[in-house]
Amino acid sequence: MPSLGDVIAPRRLGRDFRWLLGSSWSSNLGDGISLAAAPLLLASMTSSPLIVAAGAMMQFLPWLLFGLLAGAVADRHDRRRLVMIANGSRALVVAALVAFLLTGQANVWIVLASAFLYGIAEVFADSAGATLMPMLVRPGDLGIGNARMQAGHLVGNNLAGPPVGAFLFALGSFWPFLVEILCVLLAVVLISRISRTPVPEHDESAPTGTAHAIREGLHWLRGNPPVRTLVLIILVFNVTWAAPWSILVLYATEHLGMGAVGFGALTTASALGGLVAIGCFSWLERHVSFATLMRVCLSLEVLMHLAFALTTSSIVAFVIMFGFGAYAFVWGTISTTTRQRLVPMELQGRIASVNMVGVFGGLVIGQLLGGLIAQVWGLTAPWWFAFAGSALTLLLVWRQISHIAAAPPVMEPVITPDTPHGGT
Predict the structure, then answer these.
(1) What is the pLDDT of residues 190-216, one digit of tens each?
(2) What radius of gyration do the chain's Cα atoms show?
(3) Which of 62, 192, 189 is nearest to 127 (CA)?
(4) pTM above 0.70, yes or no
(5) 75 near 213, Cβ under 8 Å?
(6) CA-CA distance, 6 to 8, in Å (whole number)?
(7) CB–CB of 285/144 below 8 Å?
(8) Is residue 47 packed enough to be buried (19+ CB in 10 Å), middle (13-18) or exposed (0-12)?
(9) Average pLDDT for residues 372-400, to the nearest whole number?
(10) Mean of the per-residue pLDDT values of the chain
């Protein structure tokens, strides 16, 4: 009978993958703690909805400003070292915030500035970190590897981290941020155990400027229909998803008649659905084609929007959210795996960053549209917009999904599990 460690991280994925997984899980736990503590800190300093909302925007803005740059940097340097430097920078930013809190000098502007600087470092950490998986495991194992990484994000960011952050904040405003520092530093230590990852190869005779590197990545994306279509699907579905979710708290409390606890339980139901998907993903990957999984997940997204537009029952809403968490986990895993299989190693950073810029750009556009639509036509109108927009998009890309899933993977050399391991 396999041990728990072998179930979580199969031996065939290698020791380097286990170091990467541990680092990712630790970092995600720190992010989840901050996800609850940061808005609580701002709310304790100001009652201005605009300032509190500005704190939330700090997780989007750095991606829009620095995402493409971070991807280009990741494709030209040692990616493992970049993750270590970026995470170390995150720890320093949080340490400075803790110092301000302990000395009583913290204010909303210091908190917002800290969130922005932290977000910049996170962009570089995530852009470089997203490229490590294809360098450490074989193409056929990317699915299970990404599923394990997504599991850490789900548990750390959605389940364990936020309640821990809220509890620690109740003990003292600086405590959650001290624990966050420890989580991030542990992530640095764990990723340092990975064998030195090779610097991606590139043509030494080609121009080396960052602007040229970004244009090179965009040119490759424009000329690769499967990956281009996948990125566009993610962009549009984030617009339609973010529109109703931007007013979810009002929809839950006013339309469904839930209280604050009920609203919080909706996100918990989503996380529980994701946990179920974690246990099922290996079976799904073995028995169902990626094309079918993609179509099913996107179809369920369309139906979820329709169901939310029609229902007035909180019980039905919980069932919908549970299902959303399950298929969203599967979609996130297979879309990431498919992109990694189809992108050359030397372009992984740039294409991943373009994808993330699309994700956050879609969230910003969708949130703005959702607020405007709800203001004019009511709280269910954003769900109808999301239903119509996602359904139309799915019809347009239905046939292309087969081409995306069937595109031949880019075969790259992988660091084998028996590679000698060292430190930094």
Answers:
(1) 999 998 665 555 555 555 678 889 999
(2) 21
(3) 62
(4) yes
(5) yes
(6) 5
(7) yes
(8) exposed
(9) 94
(10) 87
Residue 158 CA to residue 24 CA, distance in Å, equals 14
Contact 18, 146 (CB under 8 A): no
Q: Within a 13 Å sphere around the CA of 317, how many CA atoms are in the beta-carbon half?
A: 24
- List the structure tokens of 413: 């050399």
Rounded distance between C-alpha atoms, residue 338 and residue 73, angstroms: 23
Residue pair 345/135 in contact (Cβ under 8 Å)? The answer is: yes
Place of tokens 């542990």: 186
Q: Where are the alpha helices (DSSP H) in 193-259?
A: 210-222, 225-245, 248-250
| Residue that the structure tokens 């736990």 belong to | 29
State which amino acid sits at residue 335.
S
Q: 318-349 burial string, b = 16+ CB within 10 Å, else e?
A: bebbbbbbbbbbbbbbbbbbbbbbbbebbbbb
Please state whether 378 falls in left (phi above 0), alpha (psi between -120 and 50) or beta.
left
8 A C-beta contact, residue 221 and residue 228: yes
Residue 385 near residue 236 (C-beta atoms within 8 A): no
**Residue 24: closest CA among 80, 71, 77:** 80
